[in-house]
Structures are given as structure tokens and as C-alpha cells.
């Protein structure tokens, strides 16, 4: 392990990608996103992804030289074809365009298709809130969860993120996936040869299991059971169905260099608060009341503390990540 | 109990409201919504609400003579002031305007403020999908749930609804509230002097309880625990914060004739599929795969079966509802 400044970490990650069939602009976008996630303490979407990304560009599963193509379809609507490149440059483009489009249209949404792993979505919607907009983002991911009562993994873990601007304070950012726990916890239990708690996963017949191997052959439990499964359907239909992207059950893994491009989708939305009410000052008492309620905490507080530390002291990195 | 055709049930409900300080157009809108919910088997949002609504118009908590006021703020944005009248006429107006606005703007949203109980939201978004749009609706409700780790009920049960058009089939409609169970189940347990299962509710100190009385003095558990609480915050901030409406903790009950108007808010959104991808035919394989997966079921299947029966055979009504 060594300690790197955020700027140095971006430069190092960029170099790894550029050496692995990736255009400099794309490498910069991806490296920035990974380092920001790492700085926020979101290691799962941080620099540990770098080696897997580089392997995917080297074999062409991700096209490191793709350029995202933007097509505006309506004052509030547009489509970005990520062309099987990285999701991050497509998201950067979407954010830039949403800032423009909402000025006129009040609300705007952009569908991103032929995309892939989009990392910490909270970081994307936060940029919309930094510009004074309410941001919403939905994404589908490779197969992880079944419809309620079903056995086949037709939904990903399908994250939802949302951000709200505040006056003189960092935005409030909500970012969650719809599985009860991340699949990584099941993998870790299997490696340790330990059982998993009932409620994490179902086996291939849709029955609760505490066996990690059976769980990996089955599906993850949705957070909130039937309600979480219904929300996962909503996200799958919006992020993949509406955008014309690969459904979870069709999408290749985000993690390995096997198979065709993942081809998943994202839907980003932004609302100009002025078009819908008295403005962000009216939301503030809600946030203040949460902060004032004992052990409750605003979502994102922990990420901001981690970010602060990373900015001043740098981040610990594993040298193997850049190998 | 007696059996009524849907048309007769609407006429009877309308008459009760008109006799209780409500304008004929508002009475028609409310009666239609209640009967539709009843027909769909959603009794909690059905005709059992009629007496409570009539009591609220008689005392002026709901202004039965209010006219919803529409202000367009942008091609995709508008605000409807329900003027402390019923939510239903405001929602009717929002749906009509969204159909227009999305034709040009691709996506449109309408904030409804100074509103109140909006019943079965699935019925509202379904009308958007009947017109070929993807519909999304969020609402806040009076205080029910605490932020995760907190004690104070700062969020309502905050329902989310979403609808997707299908070619030659009724839309797929998702409609769920974010509490694990409805507060009505706790009330029923208290009346029967029975304990409630752990996991339904927290006491006033934020601790799990199986005592129904302690639960009613505390908060309902969110579906999906911390994730459900985060989603409830998202809905509260969008449906009440953005729209400039009363937050859950400020809103008077939807059920009784005490206090000032509830003043909660709703946010309706509609997306024109053509602006975001290849169209609804691309979503269909997802719906087909769910229907094909053993015991899984598309959300809304049960409602459609109930509706079919109600249309052919009528609905069972309790004469006391119309007293």
C-alpha cells in the first residue's frame, strides 16, 4: 500500500488505461471517476476496478476508442449511444447537456445505451446538484435478482441515485442498489467457506439458502422483498427497456473480459427546481430535521467525511491495482 | 352489503359528496377515483374513504369548491395549486396537460401542491400509459416513518407508482408505499389486543416493538430498512420539498376532520418513449420473461382480474359507506 494525492492517482490510473487501448480523453474520464469513488470511500467502484477495465479494453469488450454520440430528440429528451465504450464519458456528456436542456425545458432526461458499468452514480447526480438541479439516475446491471416469487435473474441490482442542491452546503446524495446486500459479500463468504445469513440470497429454485455456493447459482434477495423486486422491475424497464439496452439477463459481466460488450443502459434526469415550486430553500427544513434527529444521518455524510480526508491526506492505494 | 354496477356506485358516491359541500365536477372526479380503486380490489383507497372525505368537506378541511390552478413554467414543467381541494381533480388536470406537454418536450413533470390524499396512484399513472407514455408518480403522506436510525416521523409512507404501456395489453403498473406494512395492520392488531410481529414498527425511542400501542406512538419500519428510508427521503424531498408542500411532519391526517388542510404534494412525470429509445416494443421481452417465470407475476395482474370481475358483476358495497 502507498499513499497518493488524488491528482497523482488520476495520472497513474490514466496511464494504465492509455497503455491498454484507451483514448486519452476516455482514460481521463474513467480515471477521474474511479479516484473520486475511492476518495469517497466507495472502494467497490474505485481503483480496484482498474485492472478489470484494462483487461476489457485490451480484448475489445469495452471499446476504449469509442466516442459517445448524442442525439437530441426533443427539448427535454435525448439519447446517447455510448457505442460500447466506457459509461463515464457518456455520463460526462449527459451531465453537460442536461445543464443546458433544463434551463429551457424545466426537466430533461437522457437515455444512455450500449453502455456498461457506471460506478458510483451518486457522483454523477451530485454534479447536477452542484449546478443547482435535482438529479436522478437509474441503471441496470447484469443479472442478479429474480422477480418476486420467480427463480430467474431478470433484474440487475439496479441502483437508484438522486441528489438535491443545498444553499452553502454540499448536495444531499442518495445512492443505493436494490439488492439487500451486495453479491460481493456472498463471494467473500464462499472464499472463507462460511455460511451466509438467511435473507441474503435464494437458490436456483427460488428458496432461501444459507449456502454461499447455492446462492451464487441462484439470485440475490431484493431489499424490501416484493417491494424491492417491483422497484427493480421499474429500474430495469426504464434504464434498459426504454433506452433500448441489454436487459440484465442478456448483459455480460462488468467484471471479466469474457463475452460481448455488456450493453446495459442508464437513464439520467434533471429538474430545474424553479420550474416546480418555491426552490431548494423549501427542502432545507427536511434535511435540517434529519440532522437534528439523534442517531439519524443524512445520506452522504460519511462519503463527505472520507472525501475531506482524501483531499487533505491523499488515498491509500494498493500498488497491484496499477500493475 | 349490496351489489352495485360501477356506474351506480359512482352516482351514489357523487351524491354523498355533493350533499357535503362539494362542487359537482369535483364530486365526479373523486367518486370515479374511489370506485375505480374499489373495482381494482384496492379497498383501502376505495369507497370506505367516502365518509371521511365528506366529513372533511363539511368542516372545510378539504375545500370541495376549490378549482385547481395550472401554471406552466417551462416546456416540460408546470405547477398545479390544488388550493386545498381534493387531489383527484388536480391529478386529472395534470394528466391532461402531461399528454400535451410530452408531445413536444419528450419528458414533462407537474408539481401538485396544497393537495391531499391521492388514493391509488397506480390508477393515475395507468392513464398516462394508456396514452402511450411512461408515467411516474410520487407523493408524500402524513408522518409515518423515521429516517434510518432516527426516532421522529419525518417521512410519510411515500408511495411510488410507475406505468409502462404495452402493445395490445393493459399497461404494467407498479404502485407501492415504502413502509414494510400499512399502519392499518397495526391498528387492527391493537383493536384485537394482539401483539404485532417484530419488524413492522419502532417505538417512540426508535426501538423495535411488538406492542401495537407502542408502535402507534412510534414509527413504521421502512421496507428494505435503511434503503427504504433513503427512498422515503427521496420521495419526501421530491413530492413535498420541490413542490413547496407540507412535509409529512407538518401534514394533518388524511383520515379525520381535525386540523388544517393536509397540504401534501405530488410529483407526476411522463416520458414519451420515442424520445428515449426504440419504443415500448423493446420493453416487452422483459414483461414476457416475468410472466413465464413460474410463480412470478407482473405487478397489477391481480388488480386487472378484480377489475374484470367488477365490470361484469359489479362491486359489493357496504351501505354504511354512503350513509
| CATH topology category name of one domain in chain A | Ribosomal Protein S8, Chain: A, domain 1
Give the CATH H-level superfamily of one domain in chain A. Answer: Malate/L-lactate/L-sulpholactate dehydrogenase, NADPH binding domain
The tally of beta strands of chain A, per DSSP, is 11
Report the top-level CATH class of one domain in chain A: Alpha Beta
Q: Estimate the strand proportion of chain A.
A: 15-25%
Shape of chain A: globular
Report the sheet with the most strands of chain A, covering strand number, pairing sense and barrel closure. Answer: 7 strands, mixed
What is the chain-wise order of helices and strands of chain A? EHHHEEHEHEEEHEHEHEHHE
Q: Which class do the helix and strand fractions of chain A yield?
A: alpha+beta
Largest interface: A-B, 77 and 77 residues
Report the span from N to C terminus of chain A: 13 Å
| Averaged pLDDT of chain A | 96
Q: What does this 3D model show about the protein?
A:
In chain A, the strands form three sheets. In chain A, strands 2-3-4-10-5-6-7 form a seven-stranded mixed sheet, with helices on both faces. In chain A, strands 1-11 form a two-stranded antiparallel ribbon. In chain A, strand 2 (69-74) and strand 3 (77-81) form a beta hairpin. Chain A is globular, with a radius of gyration of 20 Å. The first copy, chain A, has a domain at 68-179 and 222-298: 2-Layer Sandwich (Ribosomal Protein S8, Chain: A, domain 1). Chain A contains ten helices and eleven strands. Chain A has helices at 6-18, 24-39, 50-59, 87-105, 121-130, 183-191, 212-216, 225-242, 284-291, 301-313, and strands at residues 2-4, 69-74, 77-81, 107-115, 134-139, 160-166, 169-176, 201-202, 219-220, 264-271, 315-317. Chain A is an alpha+beta fold. At the A-B interface, strand 3, strand 4, strand 6, strand 7 and helix 8 of A face strand 3, strand 4, strand 6, strand 7 and helix 8 of B.
Amino acid at each position: 500500500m502507498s499513499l497518493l494525492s488524488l491528482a497523482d492517482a488520476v495520472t497513474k490510473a490514466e496511464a494504465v488505461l492509455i497503455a491498454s487501448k484507451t483514448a486519452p480523453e476516455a482514460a481521463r474520464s474513467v480515471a477521474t471517476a474511479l479516484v473520486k469513488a475511492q476518495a469517497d470511500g466507495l472502494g467497490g467502484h474505485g481503483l480496484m476496478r482498474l485492472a478489470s477495465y484494462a483487461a476489457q479494453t485490451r480484448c475489445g469488450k469495452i471499446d476504449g476508442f469509442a466516442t459517445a454520440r448524442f442525439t437530441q430528440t426533443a427539448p427535454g429528451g435525448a439519447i446517447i449511444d455510448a457505442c460500447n465504450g466506457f459509461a463515464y464519458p457518456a455520463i460526462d456528456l449527459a451531465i453537460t447537456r442536461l445543464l443546458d436542456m433544463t434551463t429551457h425545458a424545466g426537466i430533461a432526461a437522457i437515455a444512455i445505451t450500449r453502455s456498461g458499468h457506471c460506478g458510483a452514480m451518486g457522483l454523477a447526480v451530485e454534479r447536477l446538484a452542484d449546478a443547482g438541479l435535482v438529479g436522478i439516475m437509474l441503471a441496470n446491471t447484469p443479472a442478479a435478482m429474480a422477480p418476486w416469487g420467480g427463480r430467474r435473474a431478470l433484474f440487475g441490482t439496479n441502483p437508484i441515485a438522486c441528489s438535491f442542491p443545498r444553499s452553502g452546503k454540499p448536495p444531499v446524495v442518495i445512492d443505493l442498489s436494490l439488492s439487500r446486500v451486495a453479491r460481493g459479500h456472498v463471494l467473500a463468504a464462499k472464499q472463507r467457506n462460511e455460511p451466509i445469513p438467511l435473507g441474503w440470497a435464494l437458490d436456483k429454485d427460488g428458496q432461501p439458502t444459507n449456502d454461499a455456493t447455492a446462492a451464487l447459482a441462484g439470485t440475490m434477495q431484493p431489499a424490501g422483498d416484493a417491494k424491492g423486486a417491483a422497484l427493480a422491475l421499474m429500474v430495469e424497464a426504464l434504464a434498459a427497456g426504454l433506452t433500448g439496452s441489454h436487459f440484465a439477463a442478456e448483459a455480460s459481466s462488468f467484471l471479466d473480459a469474457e463475452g460481448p460488450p455488456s450493453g446495459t443502459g442508464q437513464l439520467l434526469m434533471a429538474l430545474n427546481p424553479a420550474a416546480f415550486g418555491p426552490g431548494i430553500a423549501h427542502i432545507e427544513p427536511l434535511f435540517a430535521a434529519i440532522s437534528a434527529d439523534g442517531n439519524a444521518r443524512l445520506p452522504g455524510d460519511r462519503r463527505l467525511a472520507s472525501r475531506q480526508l482524501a483531499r487533505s491526506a491523499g488515498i491509500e492505494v494498493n500498488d497491484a491495482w496499477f500493475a
